[in-house]
């Protein structure tokens, strides 16, 4: 990690509050507002059809109950008796409850169940439920389409953002944690939206529809049913408030575990060589235990919501059944209406229970969204100038004019450094570790912006060029090789995707890749992975050098490019780079001073300043910093020999 770089993606960063983050996540659906309107319409139709079902089914119950009562009354009354006579007969015998019930019923003494009418009602209910299922399926299909497109755009936004972030961000963010955000957290957001949006829409509209039907049937029972709603909301809110920090920790520790695993796997050889396997395993166990504890607490606490709401729903059911039975007994409601109301009361608690069950998913998804928003909100690199100069670099004259830079405000890294590299010259930069050599190249590439001074190429300030224009004309070969999974030919052509086969082969021959590639099973079509498995460290470096050759840069940067190459190959590469450097400005960062004896200018840096400059012979004659470095290196080599 670069000293002083802001730890934008650190696990200890403060999480935003739930509601603003949820609103921001839902705003990601804005481009799909047309589809969302259709989805809402489908959800409303589906809920309306589902909601009408119990009420109409209550009609069938009334038909059956009325028919059964009609048959029973027909046994005690003379043929042709009317409903009014049955009611009067009941009152004369002191059975006022039965009389009240008969008053609310559509019963005819002696007439049984009208099964044809019952069949018509049941057929209507079947049609309603089938329609509700079809509209619900269409809603789920469109919603799944919308959510996947939204997540696709979110991934694209993250990818675009990453390309706009400065190198400082990546220096300050653990790679594993960043990968966890881009993969695990985005997948968790997708899963959360898919599992909650459909249920949430259906549940909200179902609650509204059921409320309307309950008040339509009996305002008194509706008020009783609503008594448990405030209690359910309070329970859900309080439990969700206590579970949110644990969900935040869950995804924070997930990122930490991924970072630790990625670091341990990448450096597995070093870990094994130094016998630190137990320490690494112990560190993994510690972080894994933290993740387990956070996940357990988050799921356990949020899991209390559903049982609590179900308990309140059962209390509600008992109250509705008791009062509803009394209302039937007094003739204020029919049996079918009470049956429908009880079914509505159960359905009313069901969406509340679903919303409670979704609370833990929402907490988890919003916690992941907050981590994604931290990336999207990270400070970007300064934009290119509006009228950025995109002229090609014709000569490659590079000048550093009083350049100053620091990672931390109080710790200067480079202080008022001036340097001129003439076209076609080789400028070697040497010095102890931490002198600022690589930082100088990073400033030339605009990986970091200057604090003061200017860098010009052919008289044009690099800040007046687009970054793409600047970097397309600078070829870099780093000490740490980078290859991607693909053929050797594809890895070389990465320097110029439009290169012809002849140009690729010419670059390979110039970098002496051709010397070893024919010994491989498939030649240039040999597939290597990201780690370069199948070729040696020196051969990997040669491939990256061939890649730089193919790019035909105007300015060449070699940062310890021959450090992984054996002595014989180093000699060959020196001859190849000599041809490549012709008519090009080259910066060579080197610790092995034998590789830069022929440089046109050798710059010795210490503590961010140039303390000496000149050619090899002149600097040795001055017996200064370069002389001490040179003698120390070759004296050590002689002693080893």
UniProtKB/TrEMBL annotation:
GO terms for cellular component: plasma membrane. It is a multi-pass membrane protein. It is found in: Cell membrane. It comes from the Bacteria. SUPFAM superfamilies: ABC transporter transmembrane region, P-loop containing nucleoside triphosphate hydrolases. The chain crosses the membrane at residues 34-57, 121-147, 200-217, 223-240, 304-326. The keyword Membrane applies. Belongs to the ABC transporter superfamily. Lipid exporter (TC 3.A.1.106) family. Residues 37-364 form the ABC transmembrane type-1 domain. It comes from Nocardia panacis. ABC transporter involved in fatty acid import. Transmembrane domains (TMD) form a pore in the membrane and the ATP-binding domain (NBD) is responsible for energy generation. This is Fatty acid ABC transporter ATP-binding/permease protein. Pfam families: ABC_membrane, ABC_tran.
């Amino acid at each position: 990690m670069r000293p002083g770089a802001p730890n934008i993606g650190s696990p200890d960063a403060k999480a935003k509050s739930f509601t603003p983050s949820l609103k921001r996540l839902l705003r990601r659906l804005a481009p799909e507002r047309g589809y969302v309107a259709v989805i809402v319409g489908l959800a409303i139709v589906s809920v309306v059809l589902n909601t009408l079902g119990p009420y109409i089914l209550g009609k069938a119950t009334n038909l059956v109950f009325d028919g059964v009562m009609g048959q029973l009354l027909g046994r005690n009354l003379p043929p042709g008796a009317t409903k009014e006579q049955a009611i009067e007969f009941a009152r004369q015998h002191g059975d006022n409850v039965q009389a009240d019930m008969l008053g609310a019923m559509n019963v005819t003494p002696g007439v049984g169940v009208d099964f044809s009418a019952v069949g018509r009602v049941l057929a209507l209910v079947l049609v309603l439920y089938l329609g509700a299922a079809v509209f619900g399926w269409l809603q789920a299909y469109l919603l799944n389409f919308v959510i996947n497109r939204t997540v696709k755009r979110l991934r694209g936004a993250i990818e675009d953002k990453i390309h706009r972030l400065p190198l400082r961000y990546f220096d300050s963010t653990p790679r594993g944690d960043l990968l966890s955000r881009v993969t695990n957290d985005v997948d968790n957001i997708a899963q959360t939206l898919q599992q909650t949006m459909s249920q949430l829409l259906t549940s909200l509209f179902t609650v509204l529809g059921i409320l309307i039907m309950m008040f339509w049937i009996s305002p008194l029972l509706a008020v009783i049913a609503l008594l448990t709603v405030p209690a359910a909301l309070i329970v859900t809110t309080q439990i969700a408030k206590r579970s949110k920090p644990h969900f935040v920790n869950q995804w924070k520790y997930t990122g930490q575990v991924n970072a630790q695993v990625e670091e341990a796997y990448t450096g597995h050889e070093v870990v094994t060589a130094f016998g630190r396997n137990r320490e690494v395993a112990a560190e993994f166990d510690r972080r894994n235990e933290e993740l387990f504890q956070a996940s357990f607490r988050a799921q356990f606490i949020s899991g209390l919501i559903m049982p609590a709401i179900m308990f309140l729903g059962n209390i509600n059911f008992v109250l509705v059944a008791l009062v509803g039975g009394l209302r039937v007994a007094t003739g204020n409601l029919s049996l079918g209406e009470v049956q429908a109301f009880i079914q509505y009361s159960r359905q009313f608690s069901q969406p509340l229970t679903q919303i409670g069950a979704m609370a833990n998913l929402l907490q988890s998804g919003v916690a992941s969204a907050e981590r994604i928003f931290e990336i999207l909100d990270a400070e970007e690199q300064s934009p290119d100038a509006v009228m950025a100069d995109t002229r090609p670099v014709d000569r490659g004259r590079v000048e550093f004019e009083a350049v100053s830079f620091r990672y931390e405000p109080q710790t200067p890294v480079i202080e008022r450094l001036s340097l001129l590299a003439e076209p076609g010259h080789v400028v070697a930069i040497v010095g102890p570790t931490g002198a600022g050599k690589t930082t100088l190249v990073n400033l030339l590439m605009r990986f970091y912006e200057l604090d003061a001074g200017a860098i010009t190429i052919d008289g044009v300030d690099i800040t007046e060029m687009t970054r793409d224009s600047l970097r397309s004309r600078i070829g870099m070969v780093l000490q740490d090789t980078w290859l991607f999974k693909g053929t050797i030919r594809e890895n070389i052509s990465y320097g110029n995707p439009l290169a012809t086969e002849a140009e690729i082969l010419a670059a390979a021959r110039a970098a002496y890749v051709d010397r070893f590639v024919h010994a491989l099973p498939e030649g240039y079509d040999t597939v290597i992975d990201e780690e370069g498995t199948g070729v040696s460290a020196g051969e990997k470096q040669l491939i990256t050098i061939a890649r730089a050759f193919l790019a035909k840069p105007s300015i060449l940067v070699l940062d310890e490019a021959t450090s992984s190459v054996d002595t014989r190959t180093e000699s060959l590469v020196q001859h190849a780079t000599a041809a490549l450097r012709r008519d090009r400005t080259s910066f060579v960062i080197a610790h092995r001073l034998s590789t830069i004896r022929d440089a046109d200018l050798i710059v010795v840096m210490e503590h961010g300043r140039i303390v000496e400059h000149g050619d090899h012979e002149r600097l040795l004659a001055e017996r200064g910093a370069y002389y001490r470095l040179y003698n120390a290196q070759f004296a050590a080599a002689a002693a080893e020999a």
